[in-house]
Amino acid sequence: MSGSTDDRQFDASAPDPDDSSSGQSDAVHPASSRSMNNATSNATNSDEAWAEADDVLEAPVFSSGQQSPSSSPSSGSSSGPVGRSPNPPIRQKTASDGRPIPLDLVETAFLASTASLLWLISYYLSIGPWMRIFFPAPIALVYLRWGQRSAWMAAIVSCLLLSVLMGPYLSLLFLIPYGLLGVQLGFLWQRNTPWSLSIAIGTIVATLSFFFRVWLLSIFIGEDLWVYLTGRMTDLIEWLLNLPITEWVVNLLMSWGWVDLSILGQPSIAVVQAVTIVAVLLSDIVYLFTVHLTVWLMFERLKTPIPMPPRWVQILLEEE
């Protein structure tokens, strides 16, 4: 009796084969669906990770002075993964092998070669008197667009290129004063310095460079060029004193007692040297003013403006 009862109890407690199959199916399906969801989410996360890795590897290489467009605070919110820029990089070029090339390096090399080419053409074609206006312009443009380091690189690269093409002597004559003037003018123009101050500083640099060139030429030629310059200036002063209008003015000043008879003789060496220095200063002032005017008209078209000229210059240009 007990055995049969236990068998019945066992049989009653034992699950039905059909029920077990249905239970197993109910138990198996949720587990399989969770595993499929986990696999799908893992695949999605893996795809996103690979996509972010591809973005990092393909991101442009910015120089030390530049900042990624996505890291700037004014870039705003953008849809997509963090660290990606919605716009393509602007200041970048790509080489043939796919590596990015900074645009500042490209423009610096191009403008340095332009400055060297201008000096080379003016030297061999003897058109320097008017073409020398453009000598400092490429280096000043590099300074305005890319800063001090790129400007010095352009000046040095131009000097090295000219040393290969024309020799170290002529390359040094380009660096002083035109390379220095390009860096100095770019430095002042970037800080919106008035024309009066930039022309004054540029005149000092050009005058000191003139005496350096005279000293360097004297060494290479083997003669003192300063004596030659003072001699030519003496001839000019004597010619001016012999003009009729000059004689009339001198006689008038002598009658008033402002000058004595010594002015009618040969001018002293101190007066001649002072007149020579003043003539060099005046020529450099005219040269720097012409450079400012030419660059102001030219850089305006290149979207790299320099400070505005004085009011009287603007009025003269408007009237013309």
Short description:
The chain has 320 residues and is mainly alpha-helical. It contains twelve helices and two strands.
Taking the sheet with the most strands, its summary is: 2 strands, antiparallel
Outline type: elongated
Uncertain spans, ≥5 residues at pLDDT below 50? 1-31, 59-92
Q: How many angstroms separate the termini? A: 132 Å
**Please, what is the average pLDDT?**
74
Assembly context of the chains: single chain
Q: What percent of residues are in strands?
A: under 5%
Number of helices: 12
Radius of gyration: 40 Å
The H/E string reads HHEEHHHHHHHHHH
Share of helix, binned:
over 70%
Instruction: Count the E strands.
Output: 2
What structural class should be given to the helix and strand makeup?
Answer: mainly alpha
How are the SSEs placed, and which strands pair?
Layout: H1 2-13, H2 17-58, E1 92-94, E2 100-102, H3 103-125, H4 128-131, H5 137-146, H6 148-165, H7 168-190, H8 195-221, H9 225-241, H10 244-256, H11 269-299, H12 311-319
Antiparallel strand pairs: 1-2
Helix pairs in contact: 3-5, 3-6, 5-6, 5-7, 6-7, 7-8, 8-11, 9-11
Provide a descriptive summary of the structure in words.
- The protein is mainly alpha-helical.
- About 70% of the residues lie in helices and about 0% in strands.
- It contains twelve helices and two strands; from the N terminus they run ααββαααααααααα.
- It has helices at about 1-15, 15-60, 105-125, 130, 135-145, 150-165, 170-190, 195-220, 225-240, 245-255, 270-300, 310-320; strands spanning about 90-95, 100.
- The chain starts with a helix and ends with a helix.
- Mean pLDDT is about 75; it is low at about 1-30 and about 60-90.
